[in-house]
Structures are given as structure tokens and as C-alpha cells.
Amino acid sequence: MHTDLVAALDIGGTKIAGALVDGDGTILARAQRPTPAREDGDTVMRAVGEVLGVLTGSPLWEGVHAVGIGSAGPVDASAGTVSPVNVPGWRAYPLVDRVREVTGNLPVELIGDGVAIAAAEHWQGAARGHDNALCMVVSTGVGGGLILGGRLHPGPTGNAGHIGHISVDLDGDPCPCGARGCVERIASGPHIARRALENGWLPGPDGDASAAAVAAAAHAGDPVALASFERAAQALAAGIAATATLVEIDIAVIGGGVGNAGEILFAPLRRALRDYATLSFVQRLTVTPAQTGTDAGLVGAAAAALARGTAAGV
């Protein structure tokens, strides 16, 4: 019999993943469905219900005492609602109430997907042993979450640490969020690729114009591709340094597709950080790749559910 068993949901624009996770962070059962992101809200919820149906059908289900949800945002944990930018059918959608209906009124903990990554990295990954950390996802968007004083710091609505929408260029491009020059507008995968194309980078014969293709070109020494990653690294450094100056983190952990680019990103990022993180109390700030991989959202959602009870400190 597993103690401290929780259910976890990781909800994004591409897939809805679910798992049963024990107090050690071991995934004991899992389920997944594609997100019907272009459909109406109830259709999306049906996919969530199918994932939960697999989990509730498990013989382990009777030991589950809470549900953790990490969702693409914005989320509002205080209202129990989600409004993922990339799932237009969900606007102020009462996800917590719907999940409680399906799971027999279990307690539900809702956090943003960036906060979930932070919970996972602090519990199982690169931020283990650090009391003050920023953990980031750099992929199609840029999100993040904070560990402060040894605890997850989701903030009142579950969105704290959303570094993608710190403005680092006052005269920069307009961002869909309404501001200008946001970190996400410069450092996300699609914007790395867009900038490389605008500056003359040409995709190979296969026509792949993704950020991964730009990263491959940068690894091969293409100067335009390298410059696009350097610009992204500069934006990330400015955002990370601002965060460190505000709340005194000592490590920034970076995951997501762009984070997987390796030294093409991390070498210029560390250089730029020396230019931005100049005050004595932020000079020892380190930057490192994430370790929890594709299950980070599930592990982090489970960590939040475990922390809610008395079961396990996160």
C-alpha cells in the first residue's frame, strides 16, 4: 500500500497528461489524451475526464487523497479557474470544481505550469537543496516559478514567477499580453526562429524553420543563428537578474525546448548575466539546465498536492 498517493494533471495546449504519484515522486500509473484545443470548453473537459477516468479505474485509486493540477495559464487558484492562452474554449473555466466532481470531492490544488516546473525541479531536479530558486520553461512561451525560503511560492492566484512577461526592452516589439519588449517576445522558440529568418538565416533543404533547426545551425557555427540565440540569452539574463535583485534567488534553472539547446544558449547567458547581475548579493547566481524532463509538469503538480496536506514538504 502506497502512502501519500496523489493524482496529478498536466494540462497544456497539445496534451493533457495524468498520473498517480507517490510521496517519493514515483509515477505509478499514467494516462494521456491530445488537447482538443480548438474545440469548446466542455469538449476539452471531456478529454480531462477521460484521463481522470483511466486513473480512477486504477486499483491504486482508493489510496489517492488529493489532486494537483499544473495548467497552462493564466490560472486563478483563488477562484479555481483557468484561462489558457492556447485553449480559447476555456476562459475563467471552473476547472477545480469540474475535477472535484469527477474525483469524488477530493481536495484540488491548482497552479500554473511554470510554478509546477519549479515544484518539480526543487523536489527532484536541479534546484534540490536550494532554498531560493527561479525555475523557467523556455519553449513556445516563457514561464517560470519561484522557490522562496525553501517553499514553493505560487502567489495568491498561482502565477508568481511568470518571468516571460517582464519587460526587458522598453522600446521593443508589442507583446500579445499588451506590454512591450517582454522576455517571451525575444527568448521563446518561435521568436528565436523569426529573428533568425528576418536576419537572413536560411533553412536547410527540408525547410525546417523551427528554433531546433536554428539551434542546429548555431551548433554548426552559423553566425545569424548564433546571434539570434545570443539575443535570447541577453533577454533571459536581464529577466533573471531582475528577479534575483528583487527576491535574492541563488540559482536559475532553465528547461523546455529552448533550454535543451545546451551551450548555444547557456554560454552567452552566463556572459550576459555577468553584465546584468552586478550587485554584490546577486553575483554568485548560477544558471543550470533543468533535470526533470517531460514529466516535470506531472511531478510538480503532485508536489503541490502533497505540500497541501501534511504528507510531504516540497
TrEMBL record:
Top-level taxon of the source organism: Bacteria
Gene3D superfamilies given in the database record: 3.30.420.40
Pfam families per record: ROK (PF00480)
Xref: InterPro entries: ATPase_NBD, ROK, ROK_cs
PROSITE patterns: ROK (PS01125)
Family: Belongs to the ROK (NagC/XylR) family.
Name of the protein this chain belongs to: ROK family protein
Organism of origin: Streptomyces humidus
